[in-house]
Amino acid sequence: MKARQFWYPLPERLIAQHPAERRGTERMMVLHRDTGVIEHRHIADIVEYLTPNDLLVVNDTKVFPARLIGTWADTPGVVEVLMVAAAPEAETVGTRDARPYQLPTTNCQLIWNVIIGSGRKCREGQTAVFGPNGELKAHLLAKLEGIGMWKVAFECDRPLMDLLEEFGHTPVPPYVHREGTREEEMEDRERYQTIYAKHVGSVAAPTAGLHFTEEIFAALEQKGVKRCAVTLHVGPGTFRPVKTEEIEDHHMDFEAFTVPPETAEAINACKARGGRVVCVGSTTVRTLETVANRERGEGDPLIAPGSGASNIFIYPPYRFRVCDAMLTNFHLPQSTLLMMVSALAGRERILCAYAFAVKKEYQFFSYGDCMLII
Hints:
Mean pLDDT: 91
Distance between the termini: 24 Å
Oligomer: single chain
Low-confidence stretches: 89-107
CATH superfamily of the largest domain: QueA-like
CATH architecture of the largest domain: 3-Layer(aba) Sandwich
Shape: globular
């Protein structure tokens, strides 16, 4: 299929810049994939569409303040760093003057893969400084594949995560424009995070889960709907559009996941009794479809617990083995996320639903409204 087959027109005014005034009040479009019928509801109404036979699966990853703004150690030039993933296996990487570049001796040396934005050309051996007192330094070790991707060594005398909590910024998506105010940062710290976030590691929120409140969960529990969790740490690749003409030529980034034993047991039991596995968000779908696609013998359970890294790319005509229904936000044109929901509900039905969403002025993307595909 061609990437252009997943394009749709979207007025910029419909790209949500802030969350709803109150969590749990967002609009929810309901798309019945067997008939194409569309309903216009609100997220609290999800209780009406689930039964005690269903299983709700969420992604309990936690976003951390992964965006740093500082200066170069040798010039006043501004540098911005987005932390992508820890790389603790490396101790010495890169060369400078044909000699190995040795890390300075400090109380804290942590190797990370990051994306660097700067007005100057980056090179091995440069150092960026962050924090009001320059407590955190990042030494550039080696250029990696990808625009702006580098392996760096962070140097600090206090725990890195403590420093990030003090002067790091919430890594909201690039289409969410911020002025850098304290009020905006506090809003994002609270609202760009699910209420059940548990395991730190994401630079982007699993946004379908942002809509849930304790009241909605209580109503689901009262109805008898069970809930379990997987963990997939979301990377910046989730925002990367498909730029290849043929979508099959696009390659997904690897992202770390964990499926706990109790989650695998709950999913296998749900499938055995003929219930529906209702996935909250694309990251939950990708995690479950990844483990379900592992080789298994006859009589083995569909899902096995474990950890790994997934780069699964789901697009039509993919056949889902675990996901039966999905709660998701409205996604960017020509994105891998739009292709995934098209695989679940059909490309024509999804694009038709998106046209209705534009007409009804739903809010789009991370801080926007949601869609229940059943």
